[in-house]
Design brief:
By secondary structure, the protein is mainly alpha-helical. The protein has twelve helices and three strands.
């Protein structure tokens, strides 16, 4: 069963590290079931509450760790439903309360996002630098208008953008689901110039060959250095800017306020609606949870 469950998690795009953690947490859960004469496949809501109480009272784990266990168990029952072994997921109404959020950035309004994009300066006395800045503005556009995550941004190639229909297809990654989003009119002209002219000039200038939409001009294929420079430029331009995750969080928050929650989930590429609901917070709330590595031992 664990082998099939692992294949199921792999098909969902989870990383090797996440899968191993989920398998370990599931084994721990199943051991508890055996010790309490319970069959894990047919457990109901009350039994799961008992397990979570066991984690808290006997194993002395913190809420963040309980939440990670609950996530792994949710995946397990989703797998059982997918296989036709169960009809419903007993974890769907269970949430771990009291997880503190760290305050680390503010949410930008729609107008502030557009200001950040429109005021990014591309002109420079050196032609090559101006080309790179125009590329950077197009990158910024995907953060601002499509709320893209960095992993998805790096996965884009030239075939993902359809200027005729005004859409971009964002491929499936281990962090987000595939989706097709509308391009914003404010980014269309910059994107058209980049794809039809600027990108080819950069390729020729730096003797590059790639189908990736964005690429570094240096020896590295990864664009992390490009993003680091862009982040530095934006920090000088606007003191409200914090990081690219802030831009994504701001766009998702805007979708939640103006669209159906399911539409916001689709646009964000979230596999679970609960991930989207995490963005329903006040402006000064953090949108990420601290990572805590802790595996309790069965007594």
């Amino acid at each position: 069963m664990n082998c099939n469950f692992q294949i199921y998690l792999e098909s969902k795009g989870y990383s090797y590290k996440s899968i191993n953690r989920s398998l370990a947490e599931l084994d721990y859960f199943k051991t508890w079931c055996l010790q309490n004469n319970l069959e894990s496949e047919v457990l109901e809501y009350k039994d799961l509450i008992d397990f979570l109480q066991f984690l808290e009272i006997t194993a002395k784990v913190k809420n963040i760790t309980k939440a990670k266990y609950l996530t792994s168990i949710k995946h397990y029952y989703s797998f059982l439903c997918d296989q036709g072994i169960r009809e419903s997921n007993p974890t769907r109404y269970i949430k771990i309360k009291g997880i503190k959020r760290k305050q680390y950035h503010t949410i930008l309004s729609k107008e502030e996002l557009e200001y950040l994009y429109l005021n990014y300066q591309v002109f420079d006395v050196k032609e090559e630098i101006e080309w790179c800045r125009k590329r950077n503005k197009v990158i910024l556009g995907f953060y601002v208008f499509q709320g893209i995550d960095t992993t998805s941004l790096k996965s884009l190639n030239t075939k993902n953008v359809d200027l005729k229909t005004g859409t971009v297809h964002i491929p499936n990654t281990r962090k987000s689901k595939e989706r097709s989003l509308k391009l914003n009119p404010l980014q269309m002209m910059d994107l058209l110039e980049y794809i039809s002219d600027i990108r080819e000039k950069i390729l020729n200038q730096y003797q590059k060959e790639t189908t990736q939409l964005f690429f570094s001009t240096g020896s590295r294929e990864d664009i992390q250095n490009v993003l680091a420079k862009l982040k530095k430029q934006l920090s000088k331009q606007d003191p409200k800017f914090n990081c690219f995750k802030q831009i994504r969080a701001s766009r998702i928050t805007y979708w939640i306020k103006t669209e159906n929650l399911r539409i916001a989930q689709y646009n964000a590429g979230h596999a679970y609606i609960s991930s989207t609901e995490n963005y329903k917070v006040h402006d000064t709330d953090s949108l990420a949870l601290a990572v805590e590595n802790f595996m309790p031992k069965l007594g």
